[in-house]
What we know:
With about 200 residues, this protein is an alpha+beta fold. The protein is about 35% helix and about 20% strand. The mean pLDDT is about 80.
Amino acid sequence: xxxxxxxxxxxxxxRRFETTTSILYLGGLxxxxxxxxxxxxxxxxxxxxxxxxxxLEAVWLSWSGMPLIFAVGLPVLILVGVVTTAESRRExxxxxxxxxxxxxxxxxxxxxxxxxPWTEVHGICRVERCDANTEDGESWxxxxxxxxxxxxxxxxxxxxWGPSRRWPGTTELLGRPLPFEDLVEAVRRHAPHIxxxxxxxxxx
Length: 204
């Protein structure tokens, strides 16, 4: 039996890059590059004694004027980014944790974090739930579910099985989904008596 008293906690964190603040910073960088490009084009036009209107229209009115629209709204976005950054710096690092497994139990992050001791856990599973509210019809999204009921008492709807979250790494920009095998190994180290299963698509 694995020595669960010395096993390191298994923690899955949200990437700091995948935050609204980081995206705003990226937008600010793009805007700065466009301003530099505009200055270069204007200088070249002046050197060649040509009208500067052409370079300005080429940079800011391309793609149906989207660069200009973005530039007008950028100050508001930057202000939001500054406020968000100030708040995020005051937040505990624990709020970046999407999932944690240790000798005490399972921690599920999110807007409403929840900790479940192993005494309340009957299993952990991966399921795919259907979201019919999409333009392409049905779409299936993976979820992680902590079972709070024995296998024989599970209801037909997986939403009644216990707390669940979207599968770690599937909701983030450029995120990497958590490998199922990593979850299995983490639970085996800390609670080898807890089954971990992949149930595929389930009805809700």
